[in-house]
Amino acid sequence: MCPLKLALVTRRYPPLIGGAEKVLSYLAEALAREGAEVTVLTSRAPGMKDLHPHEQEPIPGARARGCGRLTVVRLATSRLRFVGTWLYMRNLARWFAAHPIDLAYVSMLKHDAYVAVEAGRSLGFPVVLRPEGAGATGDLGWQTWGNFGRKISNRCKQADAFVAISREIARELSEGGYEPARIHALPNGVPVPESAWQRRPGWRTAPHAVFVGRLAPEKGLRTLIDAWPAVRIALPGARLILIGEGPERPALEVQARSLGLTLGPDQAVEIPGAVADATAALRDADLFVLPSKEEGMSIALLEAMALGIPLVASSIPGNRRLVSDFKHGRLAPPEDPRALARVIIEQWENFDRAFHMSRAARSRVMQEFSITAVARKHLALFEKILEQRGV
Asked: What tens digit of pLDDT does each residue of 78-134 get?
């Protein structure tokens, strides 16, 4: 039996990194480990070193079993905003025309999806689209206000199937005119570390809370910083570390200083930027905090659960999909600094309970959201679509 030839399309891919990019890289590797021939089609960011056009990525375990392959093709673009998009779309269409595939799987319902659906119609391969977010900043929201959004929306509706990583995305797709019978609920997946998080000796004298993600308005980080003075009153040595980059960073630094929170290593608040190994940063922490105002299915939250670190998350639909309050961690009302501070303090004051919840969270990810299980669910969907087409 010939291996399934998949094109996984995403405008951004590591080393350009964010939640969507990270989960797509996890999925690409897992699909290859399951025996598929996966080609990731992405943009070559301006300034990125000119790579071989078929840069092959190592897949641990895949070659040892004689199965699977992952190839990353980085398509030329430009620093000029509209020119760059046009070049990327043109090169994506040319790649499809020159390379036979069995199926295309596309991240985001934007320009990539527009090109892929048209190519699939003309060349005869099915296309599966995957929105990455919900709400005003999500894919369906963008289609209402983005350049050519409505035209792209009409084309996207012609795809063979749509993957919804959350109930909110599934609802938005249905309400947006996407055929419900073609919407399939498939969660994000993450690797599960072999060893779980462990408590740091002497953590009580200076407990560390860590956020990992994009420093953007929807992440609710202003609420978290507003909560920190109250946390410091209860636990004077408590530190907050915000790992990531984004447009909110300057405002967050100003806000922290205005509240009398000193900035820098070993101070009240640290904003070190992006780090090479977020898992190592989590192992050195005593609590993961995700105060988002909106989320689809947070990769950072899934990774924290997989590691088994105690956590606090905002009680929004995307987070409640993963965390049951007092079972897997604690939930706090969004945009409420006083309530968030109280829940963070409770987690540290009842650390044995928090520890047991963290183990329940890790167990849940192992059972439902491991990247291997999620990749197999994707392959089952792809094979079903191909079977329906008589391929």
From this structure: 888 788 899 999 999 999 999 999 999 999 999 999 999 999 999 999 999 999 988
Whether 349 maps to a domain, the answer reads yes
Whether the predicted pLDDT of 156 surpasses 70 = yes
Residues 176 and 76 in one domain: yes
The helix or strand, by DSSP H or E, that contains position 352, with its residue range, turns out to be helix 351-368
pLDDT above 80 for 271: yes
DSSP, res 325: B
What pLDDT sits at residue 68?
84
Q: Please report where in the chains the tokens 């009240």 appear, as a residue.
A: 268
pLDDT at position 21 over 90? no
**161 and 209 housed in the same domain:** no
**Tally of CB atoms within 10 A around 115:** 26
A 10 A CB-CB count for 163 gives 22
CA proximity to 137, closest of 165, 169, 113:
169
What's this model's pTM, rounded to 2 decimal places? 0.81
In a domain, 305, yes or no: yes
The per-residue pLDDT for 20 is 81
Residues 182, 133: Cα–Cα separation, whole Å: 18
Angstrom CA distances, 372 to 33, 61, 349, 366, 382, stand at 9, 13, 36, 10, 15
| Domain region containing 16 | 5-189+370-388
Residue 86 CA to its chain's centroid (Å): 26
Enter the tokens of residue 265: 């290593």
Per-residue model confidence as pLDDT tens digits over 332-372: 999 999 999 999 999 999 999 999 999 999 999 999 999 99
Counting the structural domains of the chain, the total is 2
- Report residue 318 as tokens: 């995307």
Three-state DSSP class for residue 25 = helix
Strand ranges (E), the chain: 5-9, 37-44, 55-56, 69-76, 103-107, 127-130, 161-164, 183-185, 208-212, 239-243, 269-273, 287-290, 311-314, 330-332
Question: CATH number, domain at 355?
Answer: 3.40.50.2000
326 and 288 within one domain: yes
Indicate whether 194 belongs to any domain: no
Average pLDDT, the chain: 91
Q: Answer yes or no: do 379 and 345 share one domain.
A: no
Which of 106, 94, 102 has the alpha carbon at shortest distance from 152? 106
